[in-house]
């Protein structure tokens, strides 16, 4: 997670002041300046640049994994491979436009073209079926721990994560900020993630810092899809606390007393592990349809990426439909009946894939015409 932004700003200001005092013309880099330079100098594609931005903004492991795939250029490589296949087929179709009146010159048969277009269509469909929208990864559900100071929230936070993420102390008010960490849960669809959030304990504000702390806590609660209210077992459960469908009462520190009162709630102990497995099961049950998951080799698509793939799929379908069938459903063996329409639809599909691959141009298609199919010398 990012460091202290205020401290970082001070360090940058000090470095700039030192540089300027020594006669160095230093300034702050503009947002995305170095990545933009890499893109404009051909060192990375636009999808890779988007991946870099997504890596910086990632909050969960699934989101970070998806962002790294983008930054590594996996989507661009996939789109380039499809665009390469499509450009080769398009070159043959466009080469045949000059010989539509010569039946003995058939650069590509309708059946061969149909098979190539079907193959491309299936590859796009498979990718869309496996992919997940990046916006869904960014909308990871929040599970928020709330309660009075020293109610065992941070101890429970650490126990669920299996690591010492939050500072734990007997002194009330140790947590002064909103702590967030992705928590892995097991669902019917496999491992998935939710965002576990530890808040400062509810208390009266005595200074501006307390007011900012409580404002952040209220914002986190408003965003929460599941609230875990922590109430120590040896304390009464306030009758005024209305439990709604999005809230679960946790009776924490169950190891400190052997007598369990009859009040409602899930009894657990972060020290002994009592109730933790049941809590994980409940979280998974409540949020299984909202938790985010991503296979290690699946792509997460931004709206621009998905729109380009779906548009390419649509244009390929139009190109296939232009290959008129005979009465028995088979294709005519010689020549394309509507080569101009077929080529136009293939060109539109190629343009969409090129938006993701970034390196297939009209000159590339012309080059393929002359290099792969040559009529006359």
Can you describe this structure in just a few lines?
Helices cover 49% and strands 11% of the residues. The protein is α/β, with parallel strands linked by helices.
Distance between the termini: 64 Å
- Kindly report the name of the CATH homologous superfamily of the largest domain: P-loop containing nucleotide triphosphate hydrolases
- The name of the CATH topology of the largest domain is Rossmann fold
Helicity, as a percent range? 40-55%
Please indicate the percent range of residues in DSSP E strands (runs of 2 or more). Answer: 5-15%
Essential attributes:
6-stranded mixed sheet; 2 domains; flat; 8 strands; single chain; 377 residues; Rossmann fold; Four Helix Bundle (Hemerythrin (Met), subunit A)
Describe the protein's architecture and organization:
This protein is α/β, with parallel strands linked by helices and 377 residues long. It folds into two domains: 74-130 and 305-372, Four Helix Bundle (Hemerythrin (Met), subunit A) (Up-down Bundle); 140-287, Rossmann fold (3-Layer(aba) Sandwich). 49% of the residues lie in helices and 11% in strands. It is built from 13 helices and eight strands. It has helices spanning 5-21, 33-40, 46-57, 61-71, 74-96, 110-130, 134-138, 153-161, 208-223, 276-287, 303-321, 339-357, 362-372, and strands at residues 132-133, 142-147, 179-187, 190-198, 226-232, 247-252, 266-267, 300-301. It has a six-stranded mixed sheet, sandwiched between helices. A two-stranded parallel sheet has the order 1-8. α5 (74-96) packs antiparallel against α12 (339-357), α5 packs across α13 (362-372) and α11 runs antiparallel to α12. The longest helix has 23 residues, at 74-96. The radius of gyration is 30 Å and the shape is flat. The termini are far apart. 32% of the residues are buried. Mean pLDDT is 76; it is low at 326-330 and 372-377.
